[in-house]
Amino acid sequence: MIDIAILGCGTVGGGVAELLETNCEQVKAAAGDEVRVKYILDIRDFKGTKYENLVVNDINIIVNDPDIKIICETMGGKEPACSYSKLALEHGISVCTSNKELVDFYGAELSEIAKKNNCSYLFEASVGGGTPLLRTLKTLRHEKIDKVMGILNGTCNYILTKMKYENMELADALKIAQDKGYAERNPDADILGYDTARKIAILASLVSGKRVHYESVKCEGITKIDKLDFKYAEMLNANIKLLGVYNQGYEVIVAPFLIPNSNALYGVNEAYNAILFHGNMLSDAMIYGSGAGRYPTASAVVSDVVELAHNLNKFIYNGLSLELNNDIKAERKFKFLVRAAGQDALSAFGNNITELESINSQCAFITEAMTGAEFDAKAAGLDIKNKIRILEAI
Amino acid sequence: MIDIAILGCGTVGGGVAELLETNCEQVKAAAGDEVRVKYILDIRDFKGTKYENLVVNDINIIVNDPDIKIICETMGGKEPACSYSKLALEHGISVCTSNKELVDFYGAELSEIAKKNNCSYLFEASVGGGTPLLRTLKTLRHEKIDKVMGILNGTCNYILTKMKYENMELADALKIAQDKGYAERNPDADILGYDTARKIAILASLVSGKRVHYESVKCEGITKIDKLDFKYAEMLNANIKLLGVYNQGYEVIVAPFLIPNSNALYGVNEAYNAILFHGNMLSDAMIYGSGAGRYPTASAVVSDVVELAHNLNKFIYNGLSLELNNDIKAERKFKFLVRAAGQDALSAFGNNITELESINSQCAFITEAMTGAEFDAKAAGLDIKNKIRILEAI
């Protein structure tokens, strides 16, 4: 019997408890032993539910119980998740989490603490929800992975899918996403790209072996995307997706991209996530799955529980490092699709542009490859309606 | 230092040797120790190459060397690969392989031998080449996976991609695939679906936990697919792909399918492979990668070498079982897209058909859902030009 505790029994934590019950036979076969929830730490008391007798309010009860070998931290946010995780690891209890904010902010430090105390800190559910991503990347350590890019935010992808396939405006698509529970009342973290930035920062850290902080990610959201952009995308046999992009040596960015229909990310729709990566031997590979949702995310947490069950009292390599990534310098050049009022922009961007058929009296064209800074310099004083980078190849 | 031997230093085996050299630092970090090729068993002598001094012709030299902990069997075919693998496992040497024929034919027996001798039999490279598939499925044992379907043959996918995007006939696309080295001179194993059948048989065995033999897979190839089918597919916003399909409880089949553009498999083009699966908690997930090729396949072999290096003298669960799968009975019903000469077919298939706009004086329609046997009964005596199953949802 392996006893675990769940910190925060909300959407994800509650899903973990349910999964362990619904799939108890499968979990037992996978973990090599029965997995039982002994404690739930939550501010609610779950009176009248089957969890009633499991609830505690004091983390010390959990970390001082020698039966507890694994803790699922599904509280989210920095505190008290950080202090609790630290305390658990200092007691030699392994922690797995869905908390991307904490992994980005303090994950490398928590990993060091885990290593010192012969236990582990895993975070499969923090990137891509149910997408079986980090464990797959971990089996590719023998590759030189130089590029990772992905659709990492289900809410934005849902909105962009509605805009493309149902010809909606962003505001209307956002409203539906909110009604369906995909988007928060305050959707800024999603649509301004911050959530994607946290996830690509974690991925860039893992793949480069050196820490890339969320704050260093250059971030553009989807708020300027308009129905017209999808019309131009269609002309170019492309789709528009919000991507987080890591290219070895270049700045990590989050921005909307035009994706040609020859790229595997083109057809990743609805609230799905997908992450494409390139290894020197492997070539391209992609992992696709449910980017969010109670059960898919719980399934990712439980995949960590299973791995931890097989490695009790051991530190499992998780790819995080305290060393800062200083290799990331240049901004990568991309071609841009540009919409602008009037015709001035055409001449400002020089001779090497490709003009597109005009819709709605705006001009539209594709620039030569340039950095965002070079773009801004050329665009100074012009009435640019939108610009979208073009993904040429992974 | 971990010493290994490579049996068969052809495309894949040679790729393994190269990868271990090119990525030696990465492999060392991944495996926790340096990995060295001590022997190459091959009928060639590799005179004048750096492999010259590694070549042996006698398997007994390898299995009797106590330094050898891992063998990569990249010979292909049943014999002598089977006898050599058996001999190695009996000596407590773990084996990893790219040999799908052997895995299907004798993999479960080899796994039993491995278990008895505290070593392992792994076969990541046998399905999907470089696609990181089996190791990912292994991290999902806590799920109830009831469906697996995939594009498992790069040659067929390349041919179908050319037909769709370059409006080619099958014969012309096949010729290009042969010129590019994707397809063999005798392409039957690919285009008749046999290769896909072997792979889906292995996947069905792994996911169901019980053995499904290649011979029990119902198999239709792509030889009847015609440019016209792609015209109808386009009308229906669909693509045509050769799929291997496992649905819990149903017959395992290989056949061309119409894939709607809302499905993630729709956009998997060129020689890429992709496998979509459904878990009760996870929902849908997909793994995409290079289905073949020297380096991607070698990378999959090396991922096994790394796992074996961490688990010397241990049996690693690999999902194979000697127990036969007897749950597979019914044939699943699908709707069919039908092309037929004349108008007789329309009435033969009853009132619930959806007629499509005719091209080239043939009639075309979509049937209600039925089994292949039901289809054949209705089609008796009619001049059916082609029928393609329609994938409605995973």
Can you tell me about this structure?
The first copy, chain A, is α/β, with parallel strands linked by helices and 394 residues long. The first copy, chain A, has three domains: 2-130 and 294-309, NAD(P)-binding Rossmann-like Domain (Rossmann fold, 3-Layer(aba) Sandwich), CATH 3.40.50; 134-290, Dihydrodipicolinate Reductase, domain 2 (2-Layer Sandwich), CATH 3.30.360; 335-390, Alpha-Beta Plaits, CATH 3.30.70. Chain A has 14 helices and 16 strands. Chain A has helices at residues 11-22, 24-31, 59-63, 81-90, 100-116, 134-138, 154-166, 170-179, 188-191, 194-208, 227-235, 294-309, 344-348, 372-379; strands at residues 2-7, 35-41, 55-56, 68-73, 94-97, 121-122, 145-151, 218-219, 238-247, 253-260, 272-279, 283-290, 335-341, 354-356, 362-366, 384-390. In chain A, strands 7, 8, 9, 10, 11, 12, 13, 14, 15 and 16 form a ten-stranded mixed sheet that branches. In chain A, strands 3-2-1-4-5-6 form a six-stranded parallel sheet, with helices on both faces. In chain A, α1 (11-22) packs across α12 (294-309), α5 (100-116) packs parallel to α10 and α7 (154-166) packs across α8 (170-179). Chain A is elongated, with a radius of gyration of 23 Å. The termini of chain A are far apart. The model of chain A has no long low-confidence stretch (mean pLDDT 94). Chains A and B meet through α1, α2, β11, β12 and α12 of A and α1, α2, β11, β12 and α12 of B. β12 of chain A pairs antiparallel with β12 of chain B, so a sheet runs across the interface.
